[in-house]
Design goal:
With about 190 residues, this protein is α+β, with helices and mostly antiparallel strands. The chain folds into 2 domains: about 15-45; about 45-180, PCu(A)C copper chaperone (Immunoglobulin-like). About 15% of the residues lie in helices and about 40% in strands. Strands 1, 2, 3, 4, 5, 6, 7, 8, 9 and 10 form a 10-stranded mixed sheet that branches. It is globular and about 70 Å long.
């Protein structure tokens, strides 16, 4: 059975207005929420974080690899909190230290990235260790590396693979020259 309704029998719809006290509170809450969301999106903008000269060395599958790069922060202070790549079982930030004449590597949970100077991950200093390579890293190829920052979120870069035992690419060394004394010298290179 179909029932028809005459349009004249329907009550006219009134537009919803924020005029009651409850509606005014709701409107204020919505505006505050939108402003908070816009602020959070602005803080999470990775435009302030720049990663340059990401490179690695050739290694066979199953071995441990390493990645180096330079991070420049043109925004608010941030913190590198994690790293991942599909080419290894795990990836993590490490630091090489001199423990009474014995060189050791240790994991580092976080790395502060301030806006006053770039941070260069180099042989003999901070680096990304790739444990359990799922595929060989072949010179002349590249692979993705995703860095996670506390504020900027995820930033994915492409690491170029150099020959086994290679020193930093020339562009990486030029970047170090431009950064000045705070950049760590490469192993075997004279301090700059």
């Amino acid at each position: 059975m179909v029932t028809s309704i005459d349009a004249g029998q329907l009550a006219p719809r009134r537009p919803f207005r924020f005029t009651t006290p409850g509606a005014l509170v709701m409107r204020s809450w919505l505006i505050a929420s939108l402003l908070t969301l816009v602020s959070a999106v602005a803080l999470a903008d990775p435009a302030g974080i720049r990663v340059d000269h990401a490179w690695s060395r050739a290694m066979p599958a199953g071995a441990t690899g390493v990645v180096y790069f330079t991070i420049t922060n043109q925004g608010a202070p941030d913190v590198l909190t994690g790293v991942a790549t599909p080419v290894a079982t795990s990836a993590g930030l490490h630091e090489t230290i001199d423990d009474h004449g014995v060189m050791k590597m240790r994991p580092v949970a976080r790395l502060a990235v301030t806006s006053d100077k770039p941070i260069t991950l180099t042989p003999g200093g901070y680096h990304i260790m790739l444990t359990g390579l799922k595929q060989p890293l072949i010179a002349g190829t590249s692979f993705p590396l995703t860095l996670t920052f506390a504020k900027a979120g995820r930033v994915t870069v492409t690491a170029m693979v150099q020959a086994m035992g290679a020193a930093a690419p020339a562009s990486h060394e030029r970047g170090m020259d431009q950064m000045g004394a705070h950049a760590m010298p490469m192993r075997g290179a004279a301090p700059k």
